[in-house]
């Protein structure tokens, strides 16, 4: 093989390689260019900080769904009536998107002859948002969905600090607990 053929073969290889890399990058880029939950933390009497044995935080592979699972988020009607858990999470938002809402799912159990009051105060970048305040009557597993529409959509391409201050208060004879909370972010392209 002479130098001329070697250069021609090398140049053709580089062209094919760059074309393939460009197509591959273009096909992957849309999947990565969506808002994603990039960090989460918690603190409170129902979820002591740095307690992975009692509180688990799970972000799904797409970065769109955040789940908290609790083992000690239990309010006792006769001893410790109210337990709380303050949840914080950061959403990375690409330049051409904005966060519009959250879908929330709260699950747990309320014992017989007991009522539980579940409350969730939402804050977006420090600005108060909607409030969930509901009474759950005893002897049942509960599943409560909350479609949280933000009072004001976030600015395009800005990181979003979400904070949800949750609490469970037990009334009556026994316990009310929060076993898990799941949040799914909703977004749209900027107009």
End-to-end CA span: 58 Å
**Rg for CA atoms:** 24 Å
Task: Give the helix proportion (percent range).
Answer: 10-25%
Summed over residues and divided by their number, the pLDDT gives a mean of 85
Describe the structure.
The protein has 191 residues and is of the alpha+beta class. It has two domains: 1-32; 34-189, Jelly Rolls. It has one helix spanning 3-32; strands at residues 36-43, 55-59, 65-70, 74-76, 82-92, 97-110, 114-124, 127-137, 140-149, 160-172, 175-189. Strands 2, 3, 4, 6, 9 and 11 form a six-stranded antiparallel beta sheet that branches. A hairpin with a 2-residue loop joins strand 7 and strand 8. It is elongated and about 50 Å long. The chain starts with a helix and ends with a strand. Mean pLDDT is 85; it is low at 16-32.
